[in-house]
Design a protein that fits this description.
Length: about 350
C-alpha cells in the first residue's frame, strides 16, 4: 500500500469512522423503497428514471436517514450518459440528471440535519451536542447494468469489451460525479477484475481527488460473480490510492462472513458490506426468486457481531432490503448515537 493510500484511508477512518464510534451504517435497497412508494421501475434506467421527477428519490433518502444511515448512496447506479441517450435525452440533457442524483442526496441530508437540530441527538459518551455525520456516496454501476439485462450478475462481457472500452464508458459519468459535491464515489456490484482495474486506472488518469470504495458481488462466497478470485479483485482495490474501503454488496448474507475474512487477508482498509436479502435475481424474467428466510432475520444481532468480528466496519443492505433492515443493523451495532425521532 503506497503512502498516498495510507494517508487517504487514515483520514477516512479518523474523520468519519471514529465519529461513528468505529462502525458506520449505510442505507438499504433503493429501488425496493422507491417501489414501495409507488414508482414503476420496469424501465432500462431503473431507479435513475426517478431522477427526472425527484420527489420520490428525496423521500427514500430521508427514509434511510431516519432509519439510522450514516451514508446514503445516490440514485446514479444506472444514471449513465449512454442510458439516458437511449431514452432520447441529449448529452447536454443527461449530464445535469447525473449531477442531480448527488444534489438530491445532499438536499435530503440538509433536510435531515435541519430536523435533527430541532430534536435531541448527540454523542452521548461526551455529553456534548454533535452533528450526526452523514456522507453522500455517488453510486457507479457496472458496464452493462444500464442494459438492465442482469449482465452485472454474471460479469461475462465477452472478448469485445476491453479495459479501454470500460474506461471510456465510465469516464464521463465519473468526472461528473467527482465534481458534484459527493463525499465519495461508490463503485458497486463490480462483477470482475477487469472492471475493477478499469476503475482504478480511471481514478488515477482523471486525478479524482475524492475517496472511493469498490464493492464486489459474489454468488458462491469464494469468487466474484464472473469467477474471478476475490483475492485478485480486492488486491486491485487495495493498490488504488483513492480507494478508502473495499467490500461486498448484492450478495446473500450467508456468504458475507467468509468473504470478509478473504478480503481482510489482502487489505487493511475498512471493509464495507451491504448484502441483499438472500434472494436471487433472474435477469431474463426481471424477477427475484424468494429465499427461504425473511429479509430482516438475516441481520440479527448475532450475525452483525460475527461480521464485525471478522473485520467489517461499514454495514448496510442492498437489493430487497428496507429501512427496517437498516434500523436493525443500527441497533445491532449499538452506536453511541441517539438519533432524532
Amino acid at each position: 500500500m503506497g503512502l498516498g493510500s495510507e494517508v487517504k484511508t487514515s483520514s477516512f477512518k479518523s474523520d468519519f469512522l471514529e465519529k461513528c464510534s468505529g462502525c458506520a451504517v449505510l442505507d438499504g435497497g433503493f429501488a425496493t423503497e422507491l417501489e414501495r412508494h409507488g414508482a414503476d421501475l420496469n424501465d432500462p434506467l431503473w431507479s435513475a428514471k426517478c431522477l427526472v421527477s425527484s420527489h420520490l428519490v428525496r423521500r427514500v433518502h430521508l427514509d434511510y436517514l431516519d432509519a439510522g444511515a450514516n451514508i446514503i448512496i445516490t440514485a446514479s447506479y444506472q444514471a449513465t450518459i449512454q442510458g439516458f441517450g437511449a431514452k432520447g435525452f441529449s448529452k447536454e440533457e443527461a449530464k445535469p440528471l447525473v449531477r442531480k442524483s448527488v444534489e438530491i442526496a445532499i438536499e435530503a441530508r440538509e433536510i435531515y440535519y435541519d430536523k435533527c437540530t430541532k430534536g435531541s441527538w448527540a454523542f452521548v459518551d461526551t455529553g456534548k451536542p454533535s452533528r450526526h455525520p452523514v456522507l453522500v456516496a455517488a453510486s457507479v454501476g457496472s458496464y452493462e447494468a444500464y442494459l438492465a439485462d442482469g449482465s452485472e450478475y454474471s460479469g461475462n462481457y465477452g472478448d469485445a469489451v476491453t479495459l479501454e472500452t470500460l474506461k471510456d464508458f465510465h469516464r464521463e459519468r465519473v468526472q461528473i460525479l467527482a465534481n458534484s459535491g459527493a463525499d465519495l464515489i461508490a463503485f458497486v456490484t463490480t462483477p470482475n477484475k477487469l472492471e475493477a482495474k478499469a476503475y482504478a486506472e480511471l481514478l488515477e488518469e482523471e486525478a479524482i481527488d475524492i475517496p472511493a470504495w469498490f464493492t464486489f458481488a459474489s454468488k458462491d462466497g469464494i469468487n466474484v460473480v464472473s469467477g474471478d478470485s476475490i483475492f485478485e479483485c480486492a488486491s486491485i482495490a487495495n493498490a488504488c490510492k483513492q480507494v478508502v474501503a473495499v467490500g461486498i454488496n448484492c450478495t446473500p448474507p450467508r456468504f458475507i462472513q467468509g468473504l470478509i475474512s478473504s478480503i481482510r487477508k489482502v487489505t487493511s482498509k475498512p471493509i464495507v458490506i451491504y448484502p441483499n436479502s438472500g434472494e436471487t435475481y433472474d435477469g431474463q424474467s426481471k424477477q427475484w426468486i424468494p429465499s427461504s428466510g425473511q429479509v430482516d432475520e438475516e441481520f440479527a444481532d448475532i450475525v452483525i457481531d460475527k461480521w464485525r468480528e471478522a473485520g467489517a466496519s461499514l454495514f448496510g443492505g442492498c437489493y430487497r432490503t428496507t429501512p427496517n433492515t437498516i434500523t436493525a443493523i443500527s441497533k445491532a451495532l449499538s452506536n453511541k448515537l441517539v438519533f432524532c425521532s
